[in-house]
User: What shape does this take?
Amino acid sequence: MQLDKVIIRTVLHTLAAIGVLFVIMICALCFIYPATMMEITFDLGMEKASIRNARRAYKYTDDLYFMAYATETAILIDDNKKIIQCGEELLTEENYNNFMAYSATKKENYEQYICAQVSLAKYYSGDKQGAVDTAFMLIEKENNFPTNNAAAALWVETLVNNDSTWSEVIKGKMLQLHTNENLSEADRIFLAEMLGLENVERGNG
Assistant: This one.
């Protein structure tokens, strides 16, 4: 009986030591190979750990791919705090040119997609002024109103939520765009379509 206890205790101590070594190894890999661990942790369903590794990889390399990966993962799990943290890093003035160049390699209007997600995350986190500012950020920089842009996304959200206060703010900024001579004909058509949604929503209400 005494021998059995010794054996069991030895086995438990060995397993505990292996567990500790495994944790140490994982932590070491996260710091030494964050890019690799970013993908491994994502594949294991550890999205938040994947975001941390992606942000660490970005810190080491300044490669926007990693911050975009972190942002997209945050969007996937609907983590508004992480969407704002990661997305805003992409949208900084310092990263603007690189982000626009990176966006050109992705799906159409990728930059507006990221901007919209950050804007909506702010809106639902209670920072509605920040949401409006973010939604119009690229529109004001690029002097355009492309299809499926961030302002349009936020505009629709305020209409659906009957948020008259902020829908009026957005409407006012969109109306000002009519005076922008740089808008293309396609931009003007889409802008008119978006403004027309207000009447549709009121009719449905």
